[in-house]
Amino acid sequence: MSLTIGEISYTNVIPAFYCMQKEKLRAETCRFEPKVPAELNKGMKNGDIDVAAISSFAFGDSVHEYELLPDLSVSSYGKVGSIFLFCHKPIEAMEGTNIALTSSSATSVHLLKVILKEFYGFENINYKTMTPDPETMRKENDGFLLIGDDAIQASWSMEENWYRYDLGELWYKNTGLPMTYAVFAVRKEAVKRHPAVVKKLYNEFLSSKRLSLSSYFDAMVKDVQTEHGGTMSFWKSYFRGLHYDFLEQEKKGLLYYYELIYKYGYFTQPVNEISIWSSGNEVQYLS
Ligand SMILES: C=C(O[C@@H]1C=C(C(=O)O)C=C[C@H]1O)C(=O)O
Q: Which CDD domains match (predicted)?
């Protein structure tokens, strides 16, 4: 049986895949499936996908099914550059309004909800989930949330009179902590089935991250610019603004996010502990 690997179809996760030796992994029966985060979350939950970068919200929601691949994530300390609330009033005046949420996300839609409840004290916002199209989202709503490449493209084309809030920045300003949007997860039963392949894949993720952010950085940025437009300097600062590690501070930020998610009823159980995959040996617990 093969190992199915989900790949977020947004630019932010590229460093973990760009320098990967995919052919070598395909020879080990690995299959790659690019999808938006919400679809990867679903695929991991129902077992169609074995390993993926998934929304950190989805990881916490099924925390007993997964192990976290250490030292990998999509995080930011402050501005993330691709998770934006666009609104035609200042955020302080958003109580009682309608906000459209992208259907591609799980982490950011809940992040917006907890930010508006915990830090602004809003209790009366009407949320509607929609496909990520700014033209339709903005028509019937006072604000809308986009993530990933949809958010980047919208930030290039939205008129000046729309306010734009970066959720990573709002989180950092209020907590002093980084925010982790995606973690790399493996299903526990996939580790049992294919321990050696998971180990090879993990090493490929780590080496791709290291090479993409060092010697292959310019080549990666050039490829991204060719595909998505924008300037080299925009993409360089976008990637330099993201953090791909998962260490003490990221863990602290994520556990605080999980605490708020539970506090407001978006998790049925609190998440105080995360199983960390460790080379097929003993699993460690982070709490
Ligand atoms: C940085 C981003 O993080 C993404 C946000 C996600 C979410 O909101 O569920 C999931 C995966 C991340 O790659 C982004 O999409 O802009």
A: PBP2_Sco4506 (cd13634)
